[in-house]
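Board notes (copied after class):
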Amino acid sequence: MATQAEAGAAPHDHHHEVHHDYHLVNPSPWPLVGSASALVLVVGLLFYMRSVPFGLLVLLFGFLGIVFTMYQWWRDVVQESRHGDHTAVVGKGLRLGMALFITSEVLFFFAFFWAFFWGALVHPDPGTVEGYSWLPPGAHPVEAWDIPFLNTMILLLSGCTVTWAHHAVRENDNQTATRALLLTVGLGLIFTAFQAYEYVHTIYNAQGFTIASQIFGSTFYMATGFHGAHVIIGTTFLIVCTMRAWYAHFKPDKHIGFEAAAWYWHFVDVVWLFLFFCVYVWGGSLALSGAAAHAG
């Protein structure tokens, strides 16, 4: 009887034996839950902006759904890594996927820069488009060498601290990596706070520079606003990496999650440099020269 039991168990074990280095992901509800939560979030935002009853409640429900999805999905991926499912072959695929994702993000921001430079250099003849101007009379652009310049220094410093953390991980020093990542997260939060203050100060004071301020206003807030959203996403990514470094999850030869976060953060830094010099400095100077010409 024992021999028959062993014989019966052998095919089952052979069926589940893995003969390759790839990881087949188990069925997961989080893509569907995340998509549904994002839909609820957008609907709630529309309801809130249109003053529909319970719009804020729907918005909050969608936001909490996304946060829950992020936590559960990240937990599953971390468990896969800890169980050894992220082999060398899987790691190459993850790095390639992150590189392609960042490439798509580059093209995403390229569209905003295209609209910005078209409005600045190839804008329509004011005689053919009624009421056209680069910036409406009376509106004043953001002073580039004030908060934006400070935020530039903050992001450049955060790029140094995240690189410091990367070197610490490669030296198997998770304690130092944790400290460096805490600094990076703190700098990201300070950047977001300063940008929020800049928006409130610019929109609600006498400057009158809003998203409705012609092409410059719309491209300015779309580009810098989406960049701010990416800073928040990157900061969240780094918070997860900080917790993992605290628990010594990263190894010198295996820290794909941290590499992805560092790549993303450096991408955010580079996009900001283009925004600062092109949109804040050059675009703002065009607005000021146009205002001076209009006054003259």
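Comment from the instructor: Helices lie at 2-16, 30-49, 55-82, 88-121, 147-170, 174-204, 214-246, 256-295. The chain is about 75% helix and 0% strand.
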